[in-house]
Amino acid sequence: MVAGLEMLHIKLSNESRDGKEHFKKLDMADYAKKSFGMFGRLHEQKGFDMAVKAAAILKSNNMKFKWYVLGDGELRNKLEALIKENDVSDCFFLLGTRENPYAYIKNCDLFVQSSRYEGKSVVIDETKILNKPIVVTDYPTVKDQITNKIEGMIVDMSPEGIAGGITEMIQSEELRMQYVHNLEKREYGNQKENQGGKIK
User: What mean pLDDT do residues 133-148 have?
Assistant: First the structure.
């Protein structure tokens, strides 16, 4: 198997050949708006309902942003209804399944994970390899993967907590770049997780 960083480079390279139009259509190059990315199965575990409500808080505070969710699942219809109910259809988008979600995450300003619980999150590990600032909820095992205020910002597991963390991150470019710098120093792509020295 290919080590984590090399595998992501291959994925991003493959996507870049035909993905530019996707990003253009999604308006991810609109520098007047910040963009947030998240992905996973649309399931209660992932807390996307809290993310929708956090988006409503940000919108009510006049933040200009685009929030992209990659993935599909049994809660899609409920989440679509919740998006309409909270009047965030213009800034919160369910993109469905993509062959390579990492290319989208790479083009966002920050990554958000709103989970209620996780085991070992592959998404978190691979987002760290991308050196992307992370806002993540304080689920029971999160500190096994994120050192708070160094590798990412751990926030209260609530719409208010998520919105507050995003606001703090977005308002300070210096803070975001500090997280990027911290992640770059860690060289996650060179880490090996099993006895054979390969990424699981």
Answer: 97
